[in-house]
Amino acid sequence: MSTCKIKICGLTRIEDVQAAAQLGADALGFVFYPPSPRHLAIPQAAKLVSALPPFMTSVGLFVDAEPAVVRSVLQTVPLDLLQFHGDESPDYCQQFDRPYLKAVRVRPGLDLLAYAKAHRDARGLLLDAYVEGQPGGTGHQFDWQLIPKGLPLPVVLSGGLTPDNVADAVTQVKPWAVDVSSGVESAKGIKDAARIAAFINGVRNANV
Length: 208
Ligand SMILES: O=C(O)c1ccccc1N[C@@H]1O[C@H](COP(=O)(O)O)[C@@H](O)[C@H]1O
Hints:
This protein is an alpha/beta fold. The protein contains seven helices and ten strands.
């Protein structure tokens, strides 16, 4: 049985927060990126985060946001961890004095070791698929063979994970955690409890 951690991202409804918590997710992600169909206004996000039970991590996702935007979210929404999903520099990421994940979109030719070393103050490196013009949440998978051994940060694997492929992903990559959005939805921003349950089962049944 795998103890890989599980983050479900892009929640927009209280019933999805409650279902993900009851089904055993470790962390929930809330999107603060206006072009995303999963984007939340601050009051809505505050309501969802306040419904989290104890010991569950709330994660705020930003894409190249103005620092003032991140600060205004942090004033009202009690986020445990930030997820920077754009081209944010290490200096940018550190300015909020909050633990963070740095996301990177993996493609051939990218030196992931150098990228991880540059972002060594991150709590983890989130690996997503590269899709031209789209920062994430695409439902696309990338070639897991592109992940080098010996990355100096815990790996959070994402990008096109589903209930059908997540056991293989955990078995092959052995990440610290997995992150999913599209793969557990019935429509953008609408989570499907049966798919979340199947996803969590897939992680737990991985052969590691
Ligand atoms: O979820 C979004 O809308 C989103 C928008 C902009 C950047 C990232 C976004 N989501 C993150 O993308 C990855 C992969 O998602 P998927 O499972 O392939 O749909 C995941 O880390 C989400 O947190």
